[in-house]
Amino acid sequence: MSTSMEQLYQQVILDHAKHPHGRGLGEVAVAEARTAQSHQVNPTCGDEVTLQVDVDLSGVVRDVRWEGQGCSISQASVSVLHDLVVDQDLTTVDDLAGTFRALMQSKGAGLGDEVEDKLGDAAAFTGVGRYSARVKCALLGWVALNDALIKTGATRTKEDA
Amino acid sequence: MTSTLDTAVPQGGAPAAAGTLGPAELAAVRADFPLLARTLRGGRPLVYLDSGATSQKPEVVLDAEQDFYVQRNAAVHRGAHQLAEEATEAFEDARARVASFVGVSPGELVWTSNATAAINLVAYAMSNASLGRGGSESARFALRPGDEIVVTELEHHANLVPWQELAARTGATLRWIGVDDDGRLRLDDLATVVGERTRVLAFTHASNVTGAITPVRAFVDRARAVGALTVLDACQSVPHLPVDLHALGVDFAAFSGHKMLGPTGVGALYGRRELLEAMPPVTTGGSMVEVVTMERTTYAPPPQRFEAGTQMVSQAVGMGAAASYLAELGMDAVAAHEAHLTQLLLDAVASVPGVRVIGPTDARDRLANVSFVVDGVHAHDVGQVLDDAGVAVRVGHHCAQPLHRRFGVAATARASAAVYTTDEEIEVFREALAGVRTFFGLEDGSNA
């Protein structure tokens, strides 16, 4: 197997794909939270994700729940997203989303350790950027999150996916 | 199923016999395709097993397009100068080559931008007829509530969505023939689903997912018995089998240039002459008229009636060259070679534990496009591992979502061969496939 394949399928990605975090839709757990749901499909391969997000009145993401089916990259990416954004305020979430999108557009070059550190496990997706056909897989969950946040009314602008 | 095929389909699984391509001929064929010699990331040779999506092009096709622009480029069917004559001759010569390749007359072959456009042309002509366009001659194409359009559950979206839309526009009802567990059409459904209300029976000649070849005769006989028009999606069959559309007896057929070694941007619609003559136009404008006044227009006879606007001349010329190239190889030899590849592909997939074919596992009446799922590994990830070995396969739903739903899978990987595919390439594919489950840390990943 080539080095670029090992960089693409890092162990942390395979682990998240096998044991995803935040999986399973359900009832809102937080009182007085605004909740919304988004269903996103990648029409080229049929990958799907349905994501629910709860935002409390102070603008903090209190929970993310999701269901989906698709390749390891898309499923692991939603799992990592869950870990990153839960309990973060919307400014931080926007920053994380923008940074992850920039990472995907870096064509595998990465963004440097300092920037990647704040992405936690999501930094393991650096190698995905080298395969343009897979970038959409990695972004599917983030597109769903952005759409769901807009529906909650907490985020006003629609970012380009 | 007993073989009720109408074309001379060689029996799959037979060893390479007389009439197939020998090693020297195959090497010569490969040398005609410049792209097959290129390497990929890491210097790996390309193993192109995605011909079901689009085929590679031989030099004669590339040269034909180039030669048209270098030597003959002019507007066709207008102008009295020598270049215009030569361009028109090249355009019509290509039409004659493609028509002859599928056993029809040039006047029955309409150029379209692709096969999807060809099917839509029929659907929209019926729509226009349903609005009363084309007068009494066109009444036979008119649909109304109570009429039925029948398709099949394994159609490519190109032979499903246009009929859904036609049904929605006319109030007709869409029904469909089911698929059995082997990925073949349920012939029993012909008697129950196709009936007196059926006006159109649209079906594929060969599934782009399961590879199963449709027994066209049974469909045509049933359609004729109830007075329905037949529309055949021949995209997957024309590049791989000898196809004689007159002998098949279908009313319409669509196929594309790019899957049969020709360029993109060009396809063809075959229509039985008397039907094309009675059918109202769809796209209107220049080149498709007889007399135009400010009040009304009379239309040119087919095929020009359906070829409004400037045509894709160089692509048509390229498609004509592709048809000639295949005809020179001989479609019996092409089909025999590919029947051998079908068996190799099925054997390769069967040799790897944890891999399941979606479609017939018997090479009989089946093409060399084999779709499969790897237990525990998504098709996209399968494709990535194969790509790392230089093996190009298609992953996803292959524009056939209902069929995938029928089999309870969201996506499959598909290896599809063509005339230039070799035994060695299928072995590279097999070895790479055997490593997929191992790479993702699943048991039984080793080659049994």
CATH architecture of the largest domain in chain B: 3-Layer(aba) Sandwich
Return residue spans of chain A where pLDDT drops below 50 for at least 5 consecutive residues.
none
CATH fold-level assignment of the largest domain in chain B = Aspartate Aminotransferase, domain 2
Helix content of chain A: 40-55%
The whole-angstrom Rg of chain B is: 22 Å
Oligomer: heterodimer
Distance between the termini of chain A: 31 Å
Helical/strand content category of chain B: alpha/beta
**Major sheet of chain A:** 3 strands, antiparallel
Order of helices and strands of chain A: HHEEEHHHH
List the main descriptive attributes of the protein structure presented here.
heterodimer; A: 161 residues; alpha+beta; Sufe protein. Chain: A; 3-stranded antiparallel sheet; 6 helices; B: 448 residues; alpha/beta; Aspartate Aminotransferase, domain 1; Aspartate Aminotransferase, domain 2; 2 domains; 7-stranded mixed sheet; 4-stranded antiparallel sheet; globular; disordered N terminus
